[in-house]
Amino acid sequence: MEESKFAFRHIFASGRESFGPHDILNLTADMGAGHRRASEALEGALKEARPGTTILTLNYIRFVHPLLDIISSSIYVNTIKVAPELYRRFYRVTKEIEPDSLWQSLLNSLGHRRLLRLLQKVKPKVIVATFPTPAGVVGELKRRGLVSAPLVTVVTDNAVHTQWVNPWTDLYIVASEKVLEGLTERGIPAERIAVTGIPIDKRFAESIPRADLYAKYHLDPSLPTVLVLGSAYGMTHDVPELCRSLAHAKRPLQLIVVCGHDKILRWRCLEAVERAKNPANVFGFVNTMHELMQVSDLAVTKAGGLTMSEALACGLPLVIHKPIPGQEEENSKFLVSSGAAVESRDVERTRDLVFHLLDHPDELDAMRRNAKSLGHPNSARDAAQEIIQRYLYK
């Protein structure tokens, strides 16, 4: 839900781009906000750690062609909405696909000529990718001997998918030891993997007194606070039903609901909590997620890699509600097995889990400790240091 703090440059296929040299070429995508947020967090940390560093950040899919960006995003969102089982099967089939398959070869050639021309202009010392497609394209160019700059791939999930694995990647930035193990099982040397956590905004490392946050958000310190995060793209249609169920419950609590840029979802949630027994604050877009997570006792959300990383950095227990098929199911499985989250597939079950955890503080405290142990609040700083020490101080 974090707003971009940097100019996220959308490069059109006009052939008229004019770029000079940059220290770092930062390639990402808008296929879900997590890739972009990781890219922004890492860019900020690199500039803070090494002032004067020049970074060119591109939405790679849009760089290839703006129409491709629109079409691919639409297909992704609508497939998950309308045919989630189809996306689940696609994810599972492609998860184990051979690196030299026709499908992978096609992906690794996407926009390669334009990218090569750009690289000849930018002459980066390092190439960073927070989305698998550009990482594969750069890897193919390196394999052909056309690019020599080191490639850093930032894996934005707690699972290893074939799309992320590239023998020409010089450094992997990963979320956890589980991802490290998955990569080494696929033949990646451990010395080329850094477990820093997925890069998140540095504000998630701040410790803010709860009393100050209670006052800022007009919350009652005597009531438990439940944070409900509406899905990007409005994929979770039953968020208003969940809000209604919690806000009108006999069990005392207070709600914070975040709907992002989805105005219709916010309107439906406001309607759902109208004249409710329990107090509820319903927000649209916020740029203070680090505060809302710190003031909350429990969060109900999907299982996006960045949201998970932000919650873990705050030691926030999670009820994962209807994770998206594929990578989010993998993220959820990891957090549930680690004792930092529980999972639900329907509103009634989610509501009951929230009530159970609030009524069993020992269980909630154990989840909080487990979450904190998995968190990397300084992940962006640590990832930036890995890149700088390995490639920019030489």
Strand order of the largest sheet: 2-1-3-4-5-6
CATH-defined architecture of the largest domain: 3-Layer(aba) Sandwich
Q: Note the quaternary state here.
A: single chain
Helical residue percent band: 40-55%
Number of domains: 2
As for the CATH topology of the largest domain, it is: Rossmann fold
Radius of gyration: 21 Å
Q: Give the end-to-end Cα distance, rounded to a whole number of Å.
A: 37 Å
Show unreliable segments: 1-16
Q: Helix count?
A: 17
Class based on secondary structure composition and strand pairing: alpha/beta
Average pLDDT taken over every residue:
88
Measured by DSSP, the beta-strand proportion falls in 5-15%
Shape label: globular
Biggest sheet details? 6 strands, parallel
CATH class of the largest domain: Alpha Beta
